[in-house]
């Protein structure tokens, strides 16, 4: 008989949770891919997009290298997810890069109007998306340097306009904490050399909220005043610094954020809100 190894059981239990999360994420991705297939069919598109699949694999490989994971393993994992998506869309294995239904016709530009009606809590697939707190153990596996790098890049893109115009000069030498309560993540940021950076120092003031509420704020589906009034966002610490940061959130020039990023934030926020409603409805 194998003797019990102290500390082994909890680690294996955590691995089981990660495995469950992988399957849930695969199911969610497959359902999203099925919706994409319907949109493509409605626009007269058929077949697979080789260029997009290549970009997906390359992105996974780059992320794997940063995380110390084999890029080949990451590429194989993504390839399995793509294959399952193709199965859900009823696609063959050949890559025709999205040929049109009628030869010689140009694929029309698709204007997809995103609205809450497309993501209703009653949609069964939304209930497959795990709440952020269940993903916390997986997210926290990201090394702190990687977290800092991703956050600094995101802030640089979203806040490029305000930084350039000096709206964030009040952050020079000040330290503002950002806490994602359900993911157990916390960073402290300051303004150094004309850019926002993550520092290893105590925060003077902290903005705390769930991943969904912070995403709703970033996607401009909720305003800061409403979230703070409803206590879905909480300020702690230096009142003056916290209020200045809150006022900045309300005045962010949304039009200066790159269009592609605005679309991603907005649609991601809608998905997160609908998934949260579906989860609460089923619990």
Which helices and strands appear, and what pairs or packs with what?
Elements (H helix, E strand, L loop, with lengths): L7 H35 L7 H18 L3 H19 L42 H8 L4 H15 L1 H6 L10 E5 L4 E8 L2 E4 L6 E5 L1 H8 L5 H6 L3 E5 L1 H13 L7 H24 L1
Parallel strand pairs: 1-4
Antiparallel strand pairs: 1-2, 2-3, 4-5
Helix pairs in contact: 1-3, 2-3, 7-10
Average pLDDT number: 78
Largest sheet: 5 strands, mixed
Relative strand content: 5-15%
Q: How many structural domains can be distinguished in the coordinates?
A: 2
Total strands: the figure is 5
Classify the secondary structure makeup into a structural class.
alpha+beta
Organism: Thermomonas hydrothermalis
Domain Chorismate mutase: 2-93
Function: Required for O(2)-independent ubiquinone (coenzyme Q) biosynthesis. Likely functions as an accessory factor.
Keywords: Ubiquinone biosynthesis
Give a nutshell description of this structure.
The protein is α+β, with helices and mostly antiparallel strands. It has helices spanning 8-42, 50-67, 71-89, 132-139, 144-158, 160-165, 211-218, 224-229, 239-251, 259-282; strands spanning 176-180, 185-192, 195-198, 205-209, 233-237. A 5-stranded mixed sheet has the order 3-2-1-4-5.
